[in-house]
């Protein structure tokens, strides 16, 4: 009696579930993942949307209206006009300090990585360890001694302290990464070039640097964002409003009587974010195209 009732039940449970049931179960299993992705999108995107909407609000809407209310007009660009009159100078100062420092970091860092990994000379391991030690030194510890040195050299009041400090702080990580990248290139490539009569400089300029093009673009992208978003070093060495970089300028973005004007401040931040986003998209596509070309060539 027991056998005749249990066998049909087992056959029913072992039968494959309908397709709709399988899709529903798969969707239920993916729900926690969807919820996590939605939560991350809200955390990342909501501040940007709130910032963009706030750039169109007037000072009265900020002070007397709700923080979640929409702006009364999306065609009011007075905040952007007022913000651009000050941000243009800050952006110019950032470009004048970041671009030369980034060029020095890339050229000197790539050359140092080539010398440490490709060339054979006594003490190169110790030199590489010294660069590694430079990565571990907190930037806050060197600001006061550097300020004293710049003051004695009469460099304060100019943009040279920022260029020199950015170059010095960006070199250790760049040298370490470039030495690691050069380690992946077979030594036989440079040995063949030497046997063909190429000098060390010719091997670096014509062979080593072009082969590191993808790595150089990647490191340049990383270092650019480090330098562009720097606040501590720029705040320490810029004493005049005409020399402020964009991050320091946004920190001190106030009106005529020292009152924070939220609309122009939000508009200035939007200009900076859009500029960084455009540069990131442009450089990121260049890096991805370079990596894809290198992969095809093998």
What are the salient characteristics of this protein?
298 residues; mainly alpha; MetI-like fold; 2 domains; 13 helices; 76% helix; flat; disordered C terminus; Putative ABC transporter permease protein
| Shape, principal axes of CA atoms | flat
Uncertain stretches: 1-6, 294-298
Instruction: Write the CATH architecture name of the largest domain.
Output: Orthogonal Bundle
Count of helix runs: 13
State the helicity in percent bands: over 70%
CATH fold type of the largest domain = MetI-like fold
Structural class by sheet pairing and helices: mainly alpha
Largest sheet: none
How many separate domains?
2
**Could you tell me the strand content as a percent range?**
under 5%
Characterization of the model:
Residues 1-19 have a biased composition (Low complexity). One of its GO terms (cellular component) is plasma membrane. The chain is mainly α and 298 residues long. It folds into two domains: 30-75, no CATH class; 84-296, MetI-like (MetI-like fold), CATH 1.10.3720. The protein is 76% helix and 0% strand. The protein has 13 helices and no strands. The protein has helices at residues 2-14, 19-54, 59-64, 78-117, 124-136, 143-152, 160-183, 187-195, 200-211, 213-228, 232-237, 246-251, 262-297. The termini are far apart.
């Amino acid at each position: 009696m027991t056998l005749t009732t249990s066998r049909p039940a087992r056959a029913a449970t072992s039968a494959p579930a309908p397709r709709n049931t399988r899709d529903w179960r798969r969707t239920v299993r993916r729900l926690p993942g969807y919820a996590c992705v939605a939560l991350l999108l809200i955390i990342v995107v909501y501040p940007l949307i709130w910032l963009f909407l706030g750039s169109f609000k007037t000072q009265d809407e900020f002070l007397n209206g709700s923080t979640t209310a929409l702006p009364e007009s999306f065609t009011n660009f007075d905040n952007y006009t007022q913000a651009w009159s000050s941000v243009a100078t800050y952006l110019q100062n950032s470009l004048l300090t970041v671009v030369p420092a980034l060029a020095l970091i890339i050229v000197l860092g790539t050359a140092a990585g080539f010398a440490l990994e490709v060339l054979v000379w006594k003490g190169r391991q110790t030199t590489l360890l010294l660069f590694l030690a430079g990565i571990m030194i907190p930037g806050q510890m060197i600001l006061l001694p550097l300020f004293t040195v710049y003051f004695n050299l009469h460099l304060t009041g100019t943009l040279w302290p920022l260029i020199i400090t950015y170059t010095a702080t960006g070199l250790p990580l760049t040298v370490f990464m470039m030495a690691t990248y050069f380690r992946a290139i077979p030594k036989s490539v440079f040995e063949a070039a030497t046997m063909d009569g190429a000098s060390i400089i010719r091997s670096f300029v014509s062979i080593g640097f072009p082969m590191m093009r993808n790595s150089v673009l990647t490191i340049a992208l990383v270092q650019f964002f480090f330098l562009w978003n720097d606040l501590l070093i720029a705040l320490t060495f810029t004493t005049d409003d005409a020399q402020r970089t964009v991050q320091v300028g946004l920190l001190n973005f106030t009106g005529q009587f020292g009152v924070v004007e939220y609309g122009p401040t939000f508009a200035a931040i939007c200009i900076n974010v859009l500029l960084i986003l455009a540069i990131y998209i442009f450089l990121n596509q260049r890096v991805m195209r370079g990596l894809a070309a290198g992969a095809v060539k093998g």
